[in-house]
Design brief:
This protein is mainly alpha-helical. The protein has 32 helices and no strands. The two termini are 49 Å apart.
Length: 842
């Protein structure tokens, strides 16, 4: 929602002025005497004021949108002013619509401000009870709509606003509704232990309770909540069978050795609320904006009278709780749900720079940050500013002063806060980058948030980011493999935005490790990412000399050499001829003549498939012509795609040779090779199965290839295309705007697409399972003494197996037969019969 300023500026420079203009120079400053001067001298006021005050609705809109953003103003004062403006002008229809619309929109768009908005509504209720009545009456239907549709985030946030207004209800309806939601969660969990919708309901319930009790400290409500928490213990403390799938540290089962325990969020919430209960429900981090005793002192009036009034506190007007019906059958929503684990980089360390996992603030603040981040994904700059101002939206003394050095936290007096807002922000963003099975938005969005935050407060964010990077690097060995590659992807991207500056000297000892070591593989992969985003020489110049062997001089050649220029290579003469013909765009018949000669020579030399060498010549020539840029190679492939498609249909080995030619030609730039294979998949020149078999069979190299970034990226982009295709087919199948006959055809195609996807997942699992077990043929021949290298290779096989089993399970949860149901038939339109008695218009 954008703010509109209705004021008009009739003065100023640079604009058009009828009399003289408003330039900056001396010329044009003299103007003719006009009617305005006569009006002034004759005492007549100017009929056109320079600055007219915006109407109340516009001022109210701006006040609500900016509420809480100013750290120099008390939230009670800001809320009271907005409430007074609404209450005094509530007879204005625009004011009425503006207040309720924006209040409810802010609740589901800017979660930080929910307690402040609730405070505004309570202050307005004291002035004019119609304000609160309208908001509550409109919040109910929206809450019901979100619940019926399974829009869990919007439902949670609207329920939070309703809970913050608890003191205004004639009878508390929040806790009874939470009780009904919990009953549905129990039913769902009883039906299947792998249910996740019930877990989501329990999480919403437990996240609502802190706001409810912070807004309404009634002793009876606290007692009822304590009894209610005894019931939620059943579900919150029970481990979900799906939790191991989303564990970020699966390779270390000993809890005391794990980088972070990563408990489930609902189990933490249960323990945290119990801790708050034992301490009398302090809930210190949640701001209490509404204070009936708060009075602003007007310096122009009697301060004592203004502050104290008549000494009587007016009882707020009560309203009926909105009618909400919890359906017997809960709509799970469109998004597949998985157990939510609490991932943190800084929690539970010696110096508490973020809330401890035993504090309710850990989950409450994290939840508000994540909702803000994922709701405002359309504007990373605004989101970064919100995060930078996080300390404005919570109780005073929740955080230390911004940009406080980490070392100074040790010197903080007892009882003073030590939570750094920068650490809390970075911790939350990384929890999304490392969200399993998939983050809500594309990873680059979370990358950009960190980048924008660094630009807004470089001196404050950079030290927190440095400690985060070091923590993650130490945990690389035990980290889920997919998360390691996400870390690598972010780290290379981030360094490219800040001149590739990092203290690489800290990691020099890791260079002595084997290239199969996860830490060494991470360093190699990060440097490769940097080179993809820049140039090899520039990256090399930012590194200590110890790293230079990882970036050989050959990587500085942006255009690879055409291998058939070397006469020692078989078929070199024919290779050069084909290259020249393709450059001259010769007829296909002439090119075929040369390729046929190559095939005849290959047959004479006993080559198993003579199409393989001729395909290598043809594809390598295409790559050489297109080596200037990706657009060059795409245009060349497009021109030659018919022959490439024909080759693939004739021979599977020749199809895989196309991939081999690409990877070998771009051996010094593996990222470029991955991009080209991605385009070949789009053209269907190579098939997904061909890519998987090439990467995990032809080039497995006794399992060593599993430690390669290129291998992972090739398989990942291939499977993403396949799974995305199946999901698109499913979406079109369920698209009720399409004709039913067309949807039936799509429904018939869905099983084929789904089976193709399953075959690929099975091929990946079969290939890596034998590596994980040490049973791969070449491994059995090479590793016969239980060497350390064999154990490392088996470890990579286990990492791969875990990642792709999880991805297969996720896709089954989305597109499997058990989850999509039968094809929905269109509802026939009602036919209205004409009884002939309708009024006629003459």
């Amino acid at each position: 929602m954008a703010d509109t300023d209705t004021r008009r500026d009739y003065g100023g420079g640079g604009g058009f002025r009828q009399n003289g203009g408003g330039g900056r120079g001396g010329y044009g400053n003299k103007r003719k005497r006009g009617r305005e001067d006569d009006d002034f001298e004759q005492g007549r006021p100017d009929r056109r004021p320079r600055h007219s005050e915006p109407p109340p609705g516009t001022r109210l809109r701006r006040a609500l949108l900016e509420i809480g953003d100013d750290p120099l103003r008390l939230p009670q004062e800001v809320a009271q002013n907005a409430a007074k403006l609404a209450a005094e002008n509530y007879e204005d229809e625009f004011v009425r619509d503006t207040f309720s619309t924006i209040a409810l929109k802010l609740a589901v768009e800017q979660p930080f401000k929910i307690p402040i908005i609730a405070g505004v509504i309570q202050y307005a209720n004291a002035e004019n009870s119609e304000v609160a009545k309208d908001v509550i009456s409109k919040a109910g239907p929206q809450l019901q709509e979100y619940l019926d549709a399974g829009q869990w985030r919007e439902f949670k946030l609207m329920l939070r606003l309703v809970a913050c207004l608890s003191p205004l209800y004639e009878e508390d309806g929040v806790l009874p509704m939470l009780d009904e939601l919990f009953n549905r969660a129990v039913d769902l969990q009883t039906a299947t232990p792998e249910d996740t919708v019930g877990l989501e309901l329990v999480k919403i319930i437990l996240l609502t309770i802190p706001y409810l009790l912070a807004a309404n400290p009634d002793a009876a409500l606290q007692q009822a909540t304590s009894v209610f928490l005894e019931r939620t213990e059943i579900i919150a403390s029970a481990p979900n069978p799906l939790e191991p799938l989303v564990d970020p540290y699966p390779d270390n089962n000993a809890q005391d050795e794990r980088p972070m325990a990563c408990s489930s969020v609902i189990s933490l919430l249960q323990l945290q609320l119990r801790d708050e209960e034992s301490n009398g429900w302090p809930l210190k981090c949640i701001p209490r904006v509404y204070d009936p005793n708060f009075k602003q002192v007007d310096p122009t009036s009697d301060a004592t009278e203004e502050a104290n009034g008549n000494g009587e506190m007016k009882e707020p007007t009560k309203h009926s709780f909105p009618s909400i019906v919890v359906p017997a059958t809960i709509n799970p929503g469109l998004k597949a749900l998985f157990p939510d684990l609490y991932f943190s980089l800084f929690a539970d360390q010696e110096i508490e720079s973020v809330p401890s996992t035993t504090s309710i603030a850990a989950c409450v603040i994290r939840d508000a940050i994540l909702d803000t981040v994922n709701i405002l994904d359309f504007n990373r700059n605004a989101t970064a500013r919100f995060l930078n101002d996080i300390d404005c939206y919570w109780s005073p003394d929740t955080f230390v002063k911004r940009a406080t050095a980490f070392d100074k936290l040790r010197d903080m007096p007892a009882g003073k806060p030590t939570w750094k807002p920068e650490d809390v922000i970075i911790d939350a963003i990384f929890s999304q980058i490392f969200q399993l099975p998939t983050p809500e938005h594309r990873l680059v969005y979370y990358h950009s948030l960190i980048t924008e935050s660094c630009k807004i407060s470089p001196g404050a964010i950079a030290p927190s980011l440095g400690r985060a990077i070091r923590f993650l690097f130490r945990a690389v060995d035990s980290m889920d493999m997919e998360l390691m590659y996400r870390f690598m992807d972010w780290f290379g991207h981030h360094l490219s935005n800040f001149e590739f500056r990092w203290k690489w000297a800290e990691w020099i000892p890791e260079l002595e490790l084997s290239t199969l070591s996860p830490k060494k593989a991470f360093i190699i992969g990060t440097l490769e990412k940097e080179i993809q985003l820049s140039f090899a020489k520039r990256v090399r110049d930012t590194l200590p000399t110890d790293y230079h062997p990882l970036i050989p001089a050959s990587k500085e050649n942006e255009v690879p050499q055409f291998k058939y220029n070397d006469d020692t290579i078989p078929y070199a003469k024919e290779g050069r001829e084909v290259l020249l013909m393709l450059r001259k765009k010769s007829a296909e018949e002439d090119i075929q003549t040369v390729l046929t000669a190559v095939q005849e020579q290959a047959t004479a030399h006993g080559v198993h498939d003579p199409l393989v060498p001729s395909t290598d010549i043809y594809m390598t020539s295409i790559l050489s012509i297109g080596s200037k840029s990706l657009s060059h190679v795409l245009s060349t492939i497009d021109r030659c795609k018919d022959r490439l498609l024909a080759v693939g249909s004739q021979s599977e080995l020749a199809r895989r040779q196309i991939i081999t030619s690409v990877v070998d030609f771009w051996a010094d730039h593996p990222g470029t090779a991955v991009n080209i294979v991605d385009k070949l998949l789009n053209y269907t020149i190579v098939t997904p199965m061909a890519v998987v078999q090439w990467a995990l069979q032809d080039r497995i190299d006794r399992g060593r290839a599993l430690a390669s970034l290129q291998t992972y990226e090739l398989v990942s982009i291939t499977m993403f295309k396949v799974t995305n295709r199946v999901r698109q087919v499913l979406r079109e199948r369920n698209n009720m705007n399409l004709p039913y006959e067309q949807r039936q055809q799509i429904d018939d195609a869905l099983p084929r697409e789904r089976q193709g996807m399953r075959d690929l997942f099975a091929a990946i699992e079969d290939a890596v399972a034998v590596v994980a077990a040490g049973a791969q043929d070449e491994m059995v021949e090479r590793y016969d003494d239980g060497s350390a290298e064999e154990e490392t290779v088996k470890m990579w096989g286990q990492k791969w197996l875990r990642v792709w089993r999880r991805k297969a399970a996720v896709e089954e949860a989305v597109v499997g037969e058990a989850n999509i149901g039968p094809l929905e038939e269109p509802v026939p339109e009602a036919v209205v019969e004409d009884d002939g008695d309708m009024d006629q218009v003459s």
